[in-house]
């Protein structure tokens, strides 16, 4: 015998079961329509990220094509929505040079960002004797000789949106921040300790959700 909602025999019990199933299906449809309408009306805006500064503790390219680097960066995020909160369930920060990852990924603790709220993180990103592709090592050596190094600070993770009591599924978050660092002129930064130099950047990042 079939167990679907509309086929329980000819007795009164079958009619009751059909009404219950119909009510459940109707409720689910109403909930889905409500979520869709709320989503369309509020139109969530992706967060804004700014790379504020980078403190360079080490940046050494040695033979054969090995890079050792150590940075502390300050990155700020703002939720521009007035009615939508953001859960950062996972966020990893790292540095790349010409699309090659040159540091380990540093995890940012999961956090909730309320309406019009700002968060500031200052993680360390580093890599010890990381092998660099030969063509990238040549380009990086040329940039070091000129005194300017261009890196991309990346943040990848997953976020959820909170609308009232409703929480969405997880969405991928990709952040890209340009870091143009003047290694030749340490006077362009602020000395922190004996060997570290802090460079003010204040660069707006690209954000994709």
TrEMBL record:
Q: Which residues form the Late embryogenesis abundant protein LEA-2 subgroup domain?
A: 74-177
Location in or out of the cell: Membrane
Q: Keywords for this entry?
A: Membrane, Transmembrane, Transmembrane helix
Q: Which GO terms describe its biological process?
A: defense response to other organism
Q: What is its main location?
A: membrane
The residue ranges crossing the membrane are 20-42
Tell me the InterPro entries matching this sequence. Answer: LEA_2, NDR1-like
The UniProt entry, under PANTHER family, shows:
LATE EMBRYOGENESIS ABUNDANT (LEA) HYDROXYPROLINE-RICH GLYCOPROTEIN FAMILY-RELATED, OS05G0367900 PROTEIN
Q: Which protein, by its recorded name, is this?
A: Late embryogenesis abundant protein LEA-2 subgroup domain-containing protein
Recite the lineage of the species. Answer: Eukaryota, Viridiplantae, Streptophyta, Embryophyta, Tracheophyta
């Amino acid at each position: 015998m079939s167990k679907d909602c509309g086929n329980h025999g000819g007795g009164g019990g079958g009619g009751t079961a059909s009404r219950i199933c119909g009510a459940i299906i109707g409720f689910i449809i109403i909930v889905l329509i409500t979520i869709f309408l709320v989503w369309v009306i509020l139109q969530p805006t992706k967060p804004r990220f700014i790379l504020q500064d980078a403190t360079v503790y080490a940046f050494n390219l040695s033979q054969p094509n090995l890079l050792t680097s150590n940075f502390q960066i300050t990155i700020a995020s703002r939720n521009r929505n007035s009615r939508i909160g953001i859960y950062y369930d996972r966020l990893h920060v790292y540095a790349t040079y010409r699309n090659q990852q040159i540091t380990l990924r540093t995890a940012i603790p999961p956090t909730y960002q309320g309406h019009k709220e700002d968060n500031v993180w200052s993680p360390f990103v580093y890599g010890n004797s990381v092998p660099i592709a030969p063509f990238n090592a040549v380009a990086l050596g040329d940039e070091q000789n000129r005194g300017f190094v261009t890196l991309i600070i990346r943040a990848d993770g997953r976020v959820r949106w909170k609308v009232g009591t409703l929480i969405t599924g997880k969405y991928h978050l990709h952040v890209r921040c340009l870091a143009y660092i003047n290694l030749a002129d340490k006077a362009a930064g602020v000395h922190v300790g004996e060997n570290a130099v802090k460079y003010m950047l204040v660069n707006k990042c690209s954000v994709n959700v």
